[in-house]
């Protein structure tokens, strides 16, 4: 994808498995929004194809796709409930069903008392809730959510993550654009991390975490830890409370077996991987994480 002879997306190919929550990640300007707008037919690719369910997106597919843009796009001078009903009808719902679903959503998000209030009198977080409701109202099978937690406090962010999980369990495919790496680790099974329009990490989340640092084990034990080529001590929390870095290609179960054979008594054995914040910093640097 080129704009004014500048290459924005460079030789990128990826697939999003149906029924998964897919993290589309990267710093500002990395190409995330360009990818979304190309998928939705707003931009036309310079070369290659962008397909949803095996075909190019068309406005006729609107009922099956829910898109939450980062920039809010609601009618600010209209009544909250009227706005939600309007968008519900655009997505194929009857007026009665759109009103029912709108009221249920407002109740769920704890803003039922704002149903008759003008949009421009809502707080930023409340407007974001309404924008989310407009996105979800038709129960779409594909959800594209660009920074859905923007403006939310921790309580509402937790409610949001529960809603995303609920829709995914119902069979929806979710594309999540976020700078919150904790959300990625809790919700996503697959990720694509972009830098300068290129894929720097792509695929199964755990596999990416292993690729960028391998497997670690938090260990509480008693006895004498054997010298081994299978692992090395990466952190010491306290006597007999360590973090081990496992040699590439070995599994936690192999380490358990080696420790057991050495007569080490294990109280805690907790495998984990590098977190996504650390991987993001490795790819972009500290400054990009603060700015994102």
Could you walk me through the main structural features you see in this protein, from its secondary elements to its overall organization?
There is one protein chain. The chain folds into 2 domains: 2-208, P-loop containing nucleotide triphosphate hydrolases (Rossmann fold); 214-273, Alpha-Beta Plaits (2-Layer Sandwich). The chain has helices at 32-39, 80-90, 95-108, 124-136, 154-169, 181-187, 205-211, 252-261, 276-284, 286-291, and strands at residues 2-3, 6-7, 21-26, 65-68, 142-146, 173-177, 190-195, 198-204, 215-222, 231-238, 241-246, 265-273. It has 292 residues and is α/β, with parallel strands linked by helices. α2 crosses α3. The strands form 3 sheets. The protein has a 6-stranded mixed β-sheet, with helices on both faces. It has a 4-stranded antiparallel β-sheet with strand order 10-11-9-12. It has a two-stranded antiparallel sheet with strand order 1-2.
CATH fold naming of the largest domain? Rossmann fold
Structural class: alpha/beta
- CATH architecture level-2 label of the largest domain: 3-Layer(aba) Sandwich
* Overall number of structural domains: 2
CATH class membership of the largest domain: Alpha Beta
Q: Count of helices?
A: 10
* Residues in helices, as a percent range: 25-40%
Mean pLDDT: 89
Number of strands: 12
Main sheet properties: 6 strands, mixed
**Stretches with pLDDT under 50, minimum 5 residues:** none
How are the strands ordered across the major sheet? 4-5-6-3-7-8
What's the N-to-C terminus distance?
23 Å
Estimate the global geometry from the Cα principal axes: globular
Order of helices and strands: EEEHEHHHEHEHEEHEEEHEHH
CATH level-4 homologous superfamily of the largest domain: P-loop containing nucleotide triphosphate hydrolases
- Rg, alpha carbons: 23 Å
The quaternary state of the protein chains shown equals: single chain
Task: Quote the beta fraction.
Answer: 15-25%
